[in-house]
Amino acid sequence: MSDEWGPWIEHDGESVPNLGRAYLDAWVWCIWERAERRAPEIPPERVQFWSDDIDDDCWIIGPNDCSLIVRYRIRRPRALLQLIEMVESLPDRQPVREDA
Fold first, then answer.
1. Quick one: which of 16, 36, 53, 55 is 20 to 30 A from 24 by CA?
2. DSSP-assigned letter for residue 37
3. Using an 8 Å Cβ cutoff, are 25 and 72 in contact?
4. Cβ-Cβ contacts under 8 Å for 39 (sequence gap 6 or more)
5. Mean pLDDT in residue range 25-49
6. How far, in Å, CA of 95 to CA of 20, rounded?
7. Which residues are within 8 A (CB) of 31 and not within 5 positions of it... i.e. 6 or more apart?
8. pTM of the model
9. Are 26 and 49 in contact (CB under 8 A)?
10. DSSP reduced 3-state for 52
11. Which residues sit opposite 25 in a β-bridge?
12. Does position 12 have pLDDT exceeding 80, yes or no?
């Protein structure tokens, strides 16, 4: 069983998501034209990184030009996938019979 990625999440540039320490796969514009609040003419680049290794300025549209994350997805580690599979394979809960 290999690692699996969650769904793509569009990012609006208005806030820093609270992700804890997650490994991300993201589309990033390396130069965001913040003054005009628009994307540059070049396409975004795809990068992978730990969420706490990137500066908050890359999440929020502010007064300075820099990179901007436009969409991202979170990696689900093998251990989490195994735990989900284990829970899903549990037998249905049987009603408790009370002796009268």
1. 36
2. T
3. yes
4. 29, 32, 33, 70
5. 70
6. 39
7. 40, 42, 65, 66, 67
8. 0.59
9. yes
10. helix
11. 48, 73
12. no
Helix, strand, coil distribution of the chain in percent, nearest 5 = 20, 30, 50
Residue 3 has pLDDT above 70, yes or no: no
Measured CA to CA, the distance from residue 48 to residue 1 in angstroms comes to: 21
The residue assigned the tokens 């992978």 is 48
Residues forming beta bridges with residue 69, ordered by sequence position:
28
Region 23-48: mean pLDDT is 71
Q: Taking all residues of the chain, what is their mean pLDDT, rounded to a whole number?
A: 76
Q: For residues 28 and 36, what is the distance between their CA atoms, to the nearest angstrom?
A: 17
What tokens does 63 get?
A: 């007064």
Distances (CA, A) of 35 to 13, 27, 32, 64, 65: 13, 20, 9, 8, 8
Alpha carbon 26 to its chain centroid, in Å, reads 8
Residue 71 burial (CB count, 10 A): 14
